[in-house]
Amino acid sequence: MAEYKKLGISVAGTSRRSNSESISLDLSRLSNIENLPAANNIYLCAGINSFSACELDPVNTKRVNIDANLLIADYYLRKKSHIFFLSSTAVFGSKKEAPNEDEEASPNTLYGECKLAAELGLINLSQQYAGKLSIIRLTKVLSKQSELIQKWLTQAANQEPIQAFKDLYIAPLSLNYLVHRLLKITEACQIGTFHLSGEKLISYYELGQLLFKEWGSDAIVMPVEQSGTKGVIVQPQCNILSMNQTIEGLGIVQQSIQNFVKDMH
Questions:
Q1: In which element (H, E) is residue 124 found?
Q2: What CATH number should be reported for the domain whose range is 2-141+173-198?
Q3: pLDDT tens digits, one per residue of 175-222
Q4: How many Å apart are CA 99 and CA 166, to the nearest integer?
Q5: Is-above-0.85 flag for pTM?
Q6: For the range 144-152, what are the long-range contacts, defined as Cβ-Cβ under 8 Å and sequence gap of 24 or more?
Q7: Which contacts of 12-15 are long-range, i.e. CB under 8 A and separated by 24 or more positions?
Q8: Which of 98, 103, 155, 199 gets the highest tally of CB atoms within 10 A of its CB?
Q9: What are phi and psi of 238, to 5 degrees?
Q10: What distance in Å separates the CA atoms of residue 185 and residue 82, rounded to the nearest whole number?
């Protein structure tokens, strides 16, 4: 929304928070869809994203992550809007190799199952209405406002050691990278499935070291194992994506670690 406003493009957003200036919309209690404003492009990016939160409340998770998204998409596809759905590596479950855009999905978590169900439901709707649909699967997206980064920064400010997993890997994307590539996909008006991914996997421990070095901090980053951390569910997951078709069709390349760290400054 902020980037669209900078470009002078009319944009509106929704929020379930009562103190927000955005349009009031709660996906768990969806109503009055017809009151939503007309728009050329619709971005479906809200949902229950925590794996553990999904497992704890599967009924509400499916209501929010599948049903609500499909109801909104149905409403806007009837109006000939272009739907952009932000999906996840979770649809590929525990696949170790970076899957291509057309590779068969095989989720192993409720979150991944919901993302895949939403993808398939959206494809059916777009075919039904001969509508425009773009599915964009993402690796882990981080910004300085992300909960994990804020936790690390608070610990550093309090001169506490930062514990980061040495056996849990991600191919991180910056919020800045995501926003600008999403706008490029929008401008291209291409339909289909696209991947946005960091170029290589690094551990959270390595990530912490790189970020605090970039920030000029002498914070101590300690390596720990997720398998020995209380309250952490060890669930093998696909954390990196191939972007072959996205690169070929749009010229969008993977984000390098160096570029990611620079964006996080």
A1: helix 110-128
A2: 3.40.50.720
A3: 999 999 999 999 999 999 999 999 999 999 999 999 999 999 999 999
A4: 23
A5: yes
A6: 144/264, 149/211, 149/264, 152/208, 152/211, 152/212, 152/219
A7: 12/37, 12/39, 14/46
A8: 98
A9: -70, 125
A10: 11
